[in-house]
Every structure is written in C-alpha cells, then in structure tokens.
Amino acid sequence: MSWDLGIANGDLVISASGDLSGISGTDLLDQRIGIRLRLHRGEWVYDDNEVLGSQLYTLVGQTQQAAAQAAASHVHNALREMSGDIGIDRVEVQKLDPRTITCIVHYHVLDESGASSEQTAEIVDVTIGGTA
Q1: H or E segment to which residue 4 belongs
Q2: Which residues span the domain enclosing 94?
C-alpha cells in the first residue's frame, strides 16, 4: 500500500506524538489529486516534462458555462498519470467568481488489476485562486 507524508494547508502534518504524520488509502489519493489540480502546469522546477499540474487556473474569470465545459478536460489531463489508480466519474464546477474556481471531482478507486473496487465513489473539493 502506498504511503506519503500528510500535508494540510500547504504544511506537513504533525502527529500527536510530535512526529511527521503519514497518510495512505483514499486520503493519499485525495491529497495527490488536490496537489495535481492546484499546481499550475509547468510551475514545478523539477518537472522537466511539464506533465505535473493542471490548467484549471486558466478558467478563473471565465463564464460559468465556459468553465464547466473546459473543467472536465483539464481535470482528466492533469490526472492522466493517476489513471492506474483512479477512474474519474464526473467533474462539477461548483463555484466560479472573478478570482476563484471550485471543482468537485467524483472518482472511484481501481484495484491492482485496473478493475473498479467495491469502494463507493470519493469526492475531492478543489479551489483554485484566492481573494487577493
């Protein structure tokens, strides 16, 4: 089973014992999805191939209809590297204003053979942009 350090609000999570906290399972998938969707494509200096991140930020300031049409494509593109772990069921643009966009990603977990697991669909709520 995959494991990683927990991140909340951009900071490493510290456990009650004072150690770095780890996550796995769907919490880990949620964290990886959130990072991939919030990070601007090509922004991370160590991503030589510029495949990490999304272009959801380009939808900020667009009309609700235009953003809703493009959001699913941007999400699928950003999460392509996770296609062996998850299947995307649908993408909703829940909130759009001149400075932010909030997308809800509904996905299901795939097992090691690539088949859909018995687990119910998960939801990740991602907000791009800010109030500044």
Answers
A1: strand 3-5
A2: 25-129
Counting the structural domains of the chain, the total is 1
Whether 2 maps to a domain, the answer reads no
pLDDT digits (tens, 9 = 90+) for 103-118: 889 999 987 766 666 5
In 3D space, the residue among 118, 109, 62 whose CA is nearest the CA of residue 88 turns out to be 109
Q: pTM for the whole thing? A: 0.81
Tell me, what CATH number does 78's domain have? 3.10.450.40
User: What contacts 29, CB < 8 A, 6 or more positions away?
Assistant: 82, 85, 86, 107, 109, 122
Our separate counts of H helices and E strands in the chain read: 2, 7
